Amino acid sequence: MGAEAEHSNQVEQTSNVATPDTVEAMLEAARYDDIDDIISLASAGVSLDSKDSQGRTALHMAAANGHLAIVEYLISNGVDLNALNVEKNTPLHWACLNGHIEVVKKLILAGANVTILNSYERTPMDEAVSRGKMEFVDAINEAVAQVELNGITVS
């Protein structure tokens, strides 16, 4: 019975990994640029794509706050680049809204969709323009062109 109870305990701990508290810890780590906590939580079984009650992911938080190293880590671990929060904003929307041009480029080059409309019927570029960030138009267009060029194969 001792081994059986121990196994039951392990299964229970594993299935309860993505609690609101652990998801919040993951998002806070991304928000405050704490890669060690992100790695630790992921190692403990918390999904890097976990969402809070507002639909926010670690990638939303890192993108919104311009934490390029965290964005790169999350991308390299296969997170959903186009995750939607409750307002249908993607991490790319948030990077554009908050003026993080390097994060914007990284997300687009990794495959983030530039045409998704949020609940205000705005694309990420629309959001950048609405905040007067006109330099984002060129950056987004350049990144999209680069993605298209990378897609061309020479036979």
UniProtKB/TrEMBL annotation:
GO terms for biological process: protein K6-linked ubiquitination. PROSITE patterns: ANK_REP_REGION, ANK_REPEAT. Keywords: ANK repeat, Repeat. It holds the Pfam family Ank_2. Residues 1-20 are annotated as: Disordered. Residues 10-19 have a biased composition (Polar residues). GO terms for molecular function: ubiquitin-protein transferase activity. ANK repeats lie at residues 54-86, 87-119. This is Uncharacterized protein.
